[in-house]
Design a protein that fits this description.
seven-stranded antiparallel sheet, 17 helices, 31 strands, Rossmann fold, Topoisomerase I, domain 3, eight-stranded antiparallel sheet, alpha+beta
Length: 709
């Protein structure tokens, strides 16, 4: 009997095929097979927002093959991903293959393991039309906003701009933070930091000035700090009070999509897009030596903290056998409560087989796969381990009637921290260390007592991790959209990366300002969050998707028409698009423009004058081959490399950045190798010279050159 199982990717198909056997033919749809045409609105607004779907360009042959396979098969199972998007793909496949929506042909796998696949195949169901409608509503809503607003922005600011229901709010969040940073006025304050030693001991410990018997004293000036120092100058310090206590630290819950992206950003330096790509690979299946294709983690798009009883039992057994009974939580397995608006269809992200430790599978994984799997594996096990118990000490030090406070701790029982400790977005936590034995009235010696000037700091710029956290807290987007949203706002030039931080470009700020003035609801955080909740009601079946779109579109269309009318003669000129160049053909100013292949300079008199000047990014280094300038270039896929400006006369190219430094061994050019441990190396054959890179980052300058292309 021939049975056809359709999944989304070849990797997933390969893994599932291993568990199903010869009676099943498992094939991949390669994601969506039908969608809205990217070049048209493809939504009939007058006919209740009816979408006009068509086979995605380039997938016509695949669609024909799937139709032929379905006709030859006795039964077809739709096994796309277990989420809103996956449900929609199954619905489109059912339409394409002529399947009855009343058939129980939809199967889902929370994990791609033998148990997960067997359980999924044993519980087929009909396609969840509410889930499909929720995806359709989201897709059409985003299409309406994007296709109606993008031309308006392109006309008023710059050609090729886009707007989005979620992306525009994300940009606003970044812009608002930047405005707060600019408006921040630092305030001066001082601290007095001391180091004491118990008499007869060489152990030094730190303490900070607090105040006096009346309470805390705020030190606002250097003069005030000096007066306090003078008052304490000849005083004999002693321990006035000692308090001992116990602090219990609980492990973090298992990963959900957002926390995985945040922690991978903080600990591994992964951008969210990279995290989700690697997580997808781990979910779909990796060839493990001696085992074949194995799905290593559960489904990675989830906001549920639920864990199956089987997983909890497996964790308990592993912890007991590896670390002992003492490392299990006293009250039994831990259960974590999900957010009130979480979709509880999936478990939290966890390893499918706890006994497959990271070290056991390391040889079968890529570097990225190993790092992310290790993070997920450790976090899951740690969440089911005993708490960390710390013995704390707090001491009040009296110096001439003034108080200093010292605190420290020692670990009494390491618990879950033997395996994993969650990282933080900030370094504001005090670095406590163990204090020496202190007793009441114990005399002390002053090792050092210094005044230190400080200024209050503005709020920090967002990192990818903290922006994802903010979007989650505001209720903007869904777990599956965070990575795509950040990728969109950076690739389209609304937000730029400066190191690990995100800051708005002038384009992002100007666009946000225009949106705030003309389309306040679109960039309103509360409105967007409410729309997310409304979309959830479609999924729950309590609201019709057409009604939701009708309610939104009436006000939106009215606002758009008003904006077009009131701004019909307005054109916003960005400062970053202006240049000091004058067209050598007609005398008009030259401006920066954006095309398919990046930025270029063109005459502002276009189309009357079509003079174009090419822009190149110089790194200030001479070509090792011919001595001309080395410039930054890009492949068709956007990857940067370095080449000679005199190409094709000189063929020098390199993935690594050349420097002005020469090799001390052979005199050749040294190149930069970036990464966690940047290095300078010589590429000359047989040389092998390499050293740590302690040079500053190269300053890239953009210059205009006459184009003869």
């Amino acid at each position: 009997m021939s049975k056809l199982v359709i999944v989304e990717s070849p990797a997933k198909a390969k893994t599932i095929k291993k568990y199903l056997g010869s009676d099943f033919n498992v094939v991949a749809s390669m994601g969506h097979i039908r969608d809205l045409n990217p070049n048209r609105l493809s939504v009939d607004i007058k006919k209740k927002f009816a979408p006009k779907y068509e086979i995605i360009k380039g997938k016509e042959k695949l669609a024909d093959e799937l139709v032929k396979l379905a006709k030859k098969s006795d039964y077809v199972y739709l096994a796309t991903d277990p989420d809103r998007e996956g449900e929609a793909i199954s619905w489109h496949l059912a339409y394409l293959l002529g399947l009855d929506l009343a058939d129980t042909n939809r199967v889902t796998f929370n994990e791609i393991t033998k148990t997960g696949v067997t359980n999924g195949m044993a519980a087929p169901r009909t396609i969840d039309i509410d889930l499909v409608n929720a995806q359709q509503a989201r897709r059409i809503l985003d299409r309406l906003v994007g296709y109606k607003l993008s031309p308006f922005l392109s006309h008023k600011i710059r050609k090729g701009l886009s707007a989005g229901r979620v992306q525009s709010v994300a940009v606003r969040i970044v812009v608002d933070r930047e405005n707060k940073i600019r408006a921040f006025k630092p305030e001066e304050y001082w601290s007095i930091d001391a180091r004491f030693m118990p008499k007869g001991s060489r152990k030094v410990f730190s303490a900070s000035f607090y105040g006096d018997a009346k309470g805390k004293i705020k030190i606002e000036t250097g003069e005030q700090a000096q007066k306090l120092l003078d008052a304490m100058k000849d005083a004999q310090p002693f321990v006035e009070k000692v308090r001992h206590g116990t602090r219990k630290k609980q492990p973090s819950p298992p990963f959900i999509t957002s926390t995985l992206q945040q922690e991978a950003s903080r600990k591994l330096g992964f951008q969210s897009k990279r995290t989700m790509k690697v997580a997808q690979e781990l979910y779909e299946g990796v060839d493990i030596q001696g085992m074949g294709a194995v799905g290593l983690i559960t489904y990675m798009r989830t906001d549920s903290l639920r864990l199956s009883e089987d997983a909890l039992k497996a964790a308990e057994d592993y912890i007991r056998s590896t670390w002992g009974e003492a490392y299990l939580p006293a009250g039994g397995p831990r259960h974590f409560k999900s957010r009130s608006n979480a979709q509880d269809g999936h478990e939290a992200i966890r390893p499918t087989t706890v006994t497959l430790s990271p070290s056991a599978v390391k040889g079968s994984l890529t570097s990225d796969q190993y790092k992310l799997y290790k993070l997920i594996w450790e976090r899951f096990l740690a969440c089911q381990m005993a708490e960390c118990i710390q013995k704390t000490t707090q001491a009040d030090i009296n110096v001439g009637g003034y108080l200093f406070k010292a605190s420290g701790y020692r670990v009494d029982f390491d618990g879950y921290t033997v395996l994993y400790v969650e990282s933080s977005d900030t370094n504001e936590e005090e670095k406590e260390s163990e204090l020496p034995p202190l007793e009441k009235d114990m005399p002390l010696r002053v090792k050092e007592m210094l005044p230190n000037q400080h200024f209050t700091q503005p709020p920090a710029r967002y990192t990818e991790a903290s922006l994802i956290k903010a979007m989650e807290e505001y209720g903007i987007g869904r777990p599956s959209t965070y990575a795509a949203t950040i990728s969109t706002i950076t690739s389209r030039g609304y937000v730029k990366r400066e190191g690990k931080t995100l800051c708005p470009t002038e384009l992002g700020e100007v666009t946000t300002k225009l949106m705030e003035e003309r389309f306040p609801k679109i960039v309103n955080v509360k409105f967007t969050a409410q729309m997310e909740q409304n979309l959830d009601t479609v999924e729950e079946g309590t609201c019709g998707w057409v009604e939701l779109l009708t309610e939104f579109y009436g006000d939106f269309d009215k606002t758009l028409k008003s904006a077009k009318e009131e701004m019909k003669d307005v054109k916003i000129q960005l400062e970053e698009d202006k240049t000091d160049l004058i067209c050598d053909k007609c005398g008009k100013p030259m401006v920066v423009k954006f095309g398919r292949y990046g930025r270029f300079i063109a005459c502002s008199g276009y189309p009357d004058c079509k003079n174009i000047v090419k822009m190149v990014s110089k790194i200030g280094v001479a070509c090792p081959k011919c001595g001309n300038d080395v410039i930054v270039k890009k492949t068709k896929r956007g990857r940067e490399f370095y080449g000679c400006s005199s190409y094709p006369n000189c063929d020098f190219v390199s993935w690594y950045q050349p420097t002005a430094l020469t090799c001390p061994q052979c005199g050749g050019t040294l190149f930069k190798k970036k990464g966690k441990q940047p290095k300078l190396f010589c590429s000359a054959e047989g040389c092998g010279f390499e050293k740590e890179d302690d040079t500053e980052d190269t300053v890239v300058t953009q210059e205009a050159v006459t184009s003869k292309d």
